[in-house]
Amino acid sequence: MKHTINIDKVRDGLWLDSNITYTQVPGWLGNTTRDLKLSVIRHFQTNDDTQYPVIFWFAGGGWMDTDHNVHLPNLVDFARHGYIVVGVEYRDSNKVQFPGQLEDAKAAIRYMRANAKRFQADPNRFVAMGESAGGHMASMLGVTNGLTQFDKGDNLKYSSAVQAAIPFYGVVDPLTAKEGSVSNDFDFVYRNLLGAEPETAPDLDSAANPLTYVNANTVPFLILHGTKDVVVPIKDSERLYEKLVENNVPAELYEINGASHMDVAFMQPEVFKIVLTFLKQYLD
């Protein structure tokens, strides 16, 4: 049977621009060069002055193993609502200790600002979002705007600032995360990140703790955490929220009943609606 129909164009087409090198860092034992990659879910080119806000996503993995593409199938929902989504590779703690991961994240943000026209990205609406160890990254980005000691590598004439931070069950203080975890199975990740046990290296722990940097210039935060998280204590997210409020930083904390660490509950439309509502309030 033959059909002739009219189709309303109600949404943009999307491209996946995958595994783009955004910077190069020392590789094997400092003797080689390693590419760091990002993948971009972007909109069909409009050939006008259209600009889209950008969500940078940092996957978890205890700073031990990460895959910058692993959540892109879920995050396409944000692209459908008018965002560019960037999955960012960052070095794990087997390759570099903190603050190397933060330096990588800031390099990715500078790369996107330097190439904003290519992707039709709005350089004034950049969002840091991530889960677990990647949530720690999002928080660190949200509290370190303007701290140039973390800007290393390429595109240094561009800012690494973000305009909002959204940690999903993110690590806050490595020490209290280690001490407050119901499980001891992941205690080693904090030693690997810092190069020492957090309880014996207070300076290193403080340097990797977002609470250290919170001030009145910190960007708005949306914090999400599950009440049944046995890996990253929910009390740490509550402390981050309290610290933000104490410093008059706009902040929202959503505690999801019954949700565990890396729970599928966080990828549900209801949660994404909360994120989109928050971003509309602070980016528009």
UniProtKB/TrEMBL annotation:
Q: Which residues form the BD-FAE-like domain?
A: 46-244
Keywords for this protein: Hydrolase
Cross-referenced SUPFAM superfamilies? alpha/beta-Hydrolases
Pfam families noted in UniProt: BD-FAE
Q: Give the Gene Ontology MF terms in alphabetical order.
A: hydrolase activity
**PANTHER family xrefs:** AB HYDROLASE SUPERFAMILY PROTEIN C4A8.06C (PTHR48081), ALPHA_BETA HYDROLASE (PTHR48081:SF13)
Record protein name field: Alpha/beta hydrolase
